[in-house]
Amino acid sequence: ANVQVYVRRRKLAGQIMDTLGCYYDPAQVGMFLWGRIPDKYADVEQLTERVLHEAKVFITPGFIFGNNGRRYIRISLCAKDEKIQEALHRVEALQW
After folding, report:
1. How far apart are CA 89 and CA 28, in angstroms?
2. Among positive and negative, which fits the CA dihedral 93, 8, 82, 63?
3. What's the pTM?
4. Which among 4, 21, 92, 96 would be 20 to 30 A from 42, CA to CA?
5. Sign of the alpha-carbon torsion through 55, 21, 35, 68
6. Strand-pair partners of 61
7. CB–CB of 75/17 below 8 Å?
8. Distance between CA atoms of residues 18 and 15, nearest Å
9. DSSP letter at 52?
């Protein structure tokens, strides 16, 4: 049953990544989905700050995990489906 829960959440997180124009490997496993930000952003903070302030959604900037994460974001799959769905709706409401 837990596998199906995380499959659903990964799909929702993938939709957020798609909306933001991020590239990610859909075959990733684990409790997080990592994505590379589009080149149009100077850095990951430009994207994550916009998402936070305009959509009211926190997406983890990869740089907090080290220098290799500076062009990546991480979405946790630990939140309930409803919260991830709400985040998706908020992100989709913005013009990207």
Report:
1. 23
2. negative
3. 0.94
4. 92
5. negative
6. 73
7. yes
8. 5
9. I
Q: For tokens 């939709």, what's the residue? A: 15
- Helices 81-92 + 2-20 axis angle, to 10: 10
Residue entry with tokens 């799959």: 77
Q: Does pLDDT of 93 surpass 90?
A: yes
How is residue 7 written in tokens?
A: 């499959």
Nearest one of 91, 12, 34, 80 to 57, comparing CA atoms: 91
> For 30-88, what is each residue's pLDDT tens digit?
999 999 999 999 999 999 999 999 999 999 999 999 999 999 999 999 999 999 999 99
Residue with tokens 């990544």: 17
* Three-class secondary structure of residue 33 per DSSP: strand
Does residue 33 contact residue 13 with C-beta atoms inside 8 Å? yes
